[in-house]
Amino acid sequence: MLEVIYSLIFIEFLGILFFPIIFTVFWKLPDRGYSFSKLLALLIWVYIIWILGSFTLNLNLVITSSFILTILGIISLITLYCNYRYILSFIKKEYSMFLIFDLSFVIIFFTWIFIRNLDPSIYHTEQIMDFTILNSIMNYSYYPPQDLWFSGNPINYYYYGYLIFGVFFDYLHIDSSLAYNISVPLIAALSSIILFGLIWNITYCLNFSKKTIFFITTSTIIVFNFFSNLEPILEFFNSIQILPKEFLLWIAIDGLTYNSEGFTLFPNDHYWWWRATRVINTFDIVSNSSLDYTITEFPFFSFALADLHPHLISVPFYLMFLTLIFNFILLKDYTSILSNSKIVSNNIFFLIMSLTFGSLIVINTWNIPSILLLLFGSSLIPINNYFTLNTFHRFKISILVSLLGIFFFSPFYMNYKTPVTEIGVVGEISSRFIHIFTVWGLFIAIILIFLACIYINKKHYFVIKTLPNILLTISPIIFITIIWAFIISSLETINGNLILFIINKNVALLLLSISFIFLLYLLITKKQLSITLYQKHLTTNSINAFYFIITILVIGTLLIIIPEYIYIKDQFGNRMNTVFKFSFQSWMLFSTLTPLLIYSIGTYFKKYNVLFYICIIVITLLCVYYSFAFINMQINNWDKTFNLNVHKNFSVENRLTHDSIGWIKNHLPKGSIVLEAPGDSYSNFSKISSFSGHPTVLGWRGHQRQWRPFDLDEIFKREKDVENIYLSNNIDLVKELINQYEIKYIYIGVQENIMYGKENISKNTFRSFGKRIYQSEQMINGNYIFIYDVTLANE
Q1: What contacts 24+ positions apart, CB below 8 Å, involve 365-368?
Q2: What is the mean pLDDT of residues 506-530?
Q3: Based on the number of CB atoms within 10 Å of its own CB, is 682 exposed (0-12), middle (13-18) or buried (19 or more)?
Q4: What sign does the dihedral 487-491-492-496 (CA atoms) show?
Q5: 3-state SS of 273-289?
Q6: Quick one: which of 74, 529, 587, 615 has the most CB atoms within 10 Å?
């Protein structure tokens, strides 16, 4: 489809347009920032539009966006003119790098375009909600965007990620029904090229050969996009009938039951692929009910599921922030942002870093703990550079970056009320060792083997001899355990012996704790290295790159450990979302470095090359089994057509409803309120407002309670008021409610007849003053679809 090509061309254009500026700012990175030039250009462009839209009504998106692009283009041309010799020389020298980067971007983009085309519909989970927010942004050019499911009010959700892609596609005049499904492959491709660049930069600083760099970066893209956790291996073994019933009962993964249907290479049940993200759970022995429902998604699942959720949208921005952190570490001088004595480019870099930090918060507020750990953790790295900088000075810069990031997005905070205000403590029910290993076993094993290689080869590193450093290393785990035990005992939430429970918990976390302790020891000890990742020629950059790798691994491990002790209380009242968001970020950090660690391990096993390579091939085949099986399942259900429209199946299975939505979009005034029946979350209700872009009084009730726990009375009132409009015989009351909510049109369709009953609706009073302006061609379940114009109620 042409829309796919337009999107690809435009994002490439943004990257090329902005590259001269990025080149001069990121002079310490081997790729000069080219890997994230597309995303950074998009971020800055949309940010300026958002700022203007936050203080201006009825912003003309096309004119404003074009003007901003023109200004940015002029600045870029001036920069190019001033530095053209350096830029052209770099391009000539590294032209192969540019080709490789963009080739990886295009391949991943079209791979995920193909996968989305296999099933482009949005029927399940929260896809309708995601589409509603995207549609609101693409229909109205003022911010914050209005809540289509709570008319007259702005969205109280972290909407900024939707805004970035909404503005992108709206500028190209691509309809939201296509924009949704192009967004997911675009996010995957942007994430991949940034990840490619990050690993390229790290391995370049480690003095690897170009052939090795290419091998590691390509492997990283494969791991990130197509690897799963270890649960699908159990699915495979169960499909070929080699797992005993007793083992499946013991491991207790929800839905994973003994295969009694015969030998098969792939699971037969349609939703088998969900189980890999629902591993960590505990069930009541008597009722078999879930006691600790959690989510542990990984990138392939999230891209394949195609919920355009904030955690998914934030992936490329998170990886870009990682790259900026790496640049922060490589810089020889940090003082420029705090004084006027140094080069301008560093000042611009810290402003970009602040903007990226701030954007990660408003794209997904769950990023806050992780990016704070990354930002301030990088300040603690024992950096070896040409200037002496104390930790306090680096902390000052980190504080300034975080404060500036919050300031840049202050208009967002003026209209957003957080629904989360408490921290909860994990009680008696927590993760089992086997479940932790099923989710994290691959990464933990690689990290432990990597650490073993370093410590066993002491002649290549340093001798462990400082007791204070060892004590300092283990103190965080001991401190966390003691504080947690004290709180738990005071709350009296443990039945039985507290000491035994602490032991059980630490046994469950044993491998993670060991990894964390030994990784942290590498950071705390400041002994000079004699070898780094088996590289014989040390440079300042290679030492800094090594410490960056260890820091990322420490933070990734910590993000898994934290939800085993505390969690952020949300509307669900459990740790589901904390485990979900933290583990997803941890997966990004681990998958980023896994191929690099494996390569480093391989350098210590040169005598056993054949065995080592066989192990790697087997592990790779097992870990890509999930993605291969999923794609195979989708191909088997594919109708062999190319159509990325989210309404592809809906327009056939619910043709009359789809036609009525199209009529609303084409005939009713933009922004007019269309009343429809509110329903439960994850249901077929509220699709009229979602798909048409017209606001309604109340949409998914459950989600409004999640977003507005401080407005529960108002939500309940709206629900009753909508019911009265549909059912009440009191004409004065109905007119009053219609006027109160400024309702212009009333929709009567399948869901309204289900909720209120055809006989009851047929007696409603708005028909007496409302004008029927639409009737479906045919009946659905014995009923026509009607739309009434009730503007006369305002007279």
Answers
A1: 365/158, 365/418, 366/310, 366/311, 366/568, 366/577, 366/581, 366/582, 367/314, 367/318, 367/581, 367/585
A2: 72
A3: middle
A4: negative
A5: HHHHHCCCCCECCCCCC
A6: 587
Q: What is the mean pLDDT of residues 738-747?
A: 94
Cα dihedral sign, 721-723-725-731? negative
Instruction: Give the CA radius of gyration of the chain.
Output: 28
| Mean pLDDT lowest among 266-270, 430-434, 454-458, 724-728 | 454-458
Before 144, cis peptide (omega within 30)? Answer: yes
Instruction: Please give the C-alpha separations between residue 377 and each of 26, 265, 309, 517, 761, in angstroms, as whole numbers.
Output: 21, 45, 27, 15, 61
**Alpha-carbon 739 to chain mean position:** 40
Alpha helices in 741-774 (DSSP H): 750-756, 758-761, 766-769
Residue 674: beta bridge partners? 745
Give the integer Cα–Cα distance in Å for 700 and 682.
Answer: 8
First to last CA, the chain: 47
Q: State phi, psi for 548 to the nearest 5 degrees.
A: -65, -45
Which residue, 204, 258, 217, 263, is CA-closest to 105? 217
Q: Tell me the whole-structure pTM to 2 decimals.
A: 0.93
Angle at 203 between CA 198 and CA 205, to 5 degrees: 100
Beta bridge partners of 747: 787
Is residue 734 within 8 Å of residue 766, measured between CB atoms?
yes
Going by the DSSP 8-state scheme, the letter that residue 710 receives in this structure is G
Q: Rounded to an integer, what distance in angstroms lies between the CA atom of residue 322 and that of residue 593?
A: 12
Residues 193 and 586 sit within 8 Å (Cβ to Cβ)? no
Q: Can you tell me whether residue 149 is helix, strand or coil? A: coil
Sketch the domain layout of the chain as residue ranges.
654-794
Identify the burial level of 384 via C-beta atoms within 10 angstroms of its C-beta, where 0-12 means exposed, 13-18 middle and 19 or more buried.
Answer: middle
Residues in the chain: 795
The whole-number average pLDDT for the span 565-578 is 86
482 burial class (0-12, 13-18, 19+ CB within 10 angstroms)? Answer: exposed
Residue 731 contacts by C-beta under 8 Å, 6 or more apart in sequence?
765, 768, 769
Tens of pLDDT, residues 37-63: 999 999 999 999 999 998 876 778 899
Query: Which amino acid, 29?
Result: L
For the purposes of burial, counting CB atoms within 10 Å of the CB of 705, is it exposed (0-12), middle (13-18) or buried (19 or more)? middle
Mean residue pLDDT of the chain comes to: 87
Cα separations (Å) of 56 from 49, 69, 157, 417, 702?
10, 19, 21, 22, 32
Buried b (16+ CB within 10 A) or exposed e, 235-264: bbebbeeebeeeebeebebeebeebeeeee
Place of tokens 């047929």: 762
pLDDT at 492: 60
CA distance 397 to 681: 44
SS3 780: strand
Instruction: Give yes or no for a contact between 243 and 258, defined as CB atoms under 8 angstroms apart.
Output: yes
Cα 346 from Cα 397, distance rounded (Å):
12
* Encoded tokens for 507: 């046994």
Report the run of H or E that residue 234 belongs to, with start and end. helix 231-239
Chain position carrying tokens 């061609």: 777
Q: Which residues of 53-73 are buried (b: 16+ CB within 10 A; e: fewer)?
A: bbeeeebebeebbeebbeebe
AA identity, residue 126: E
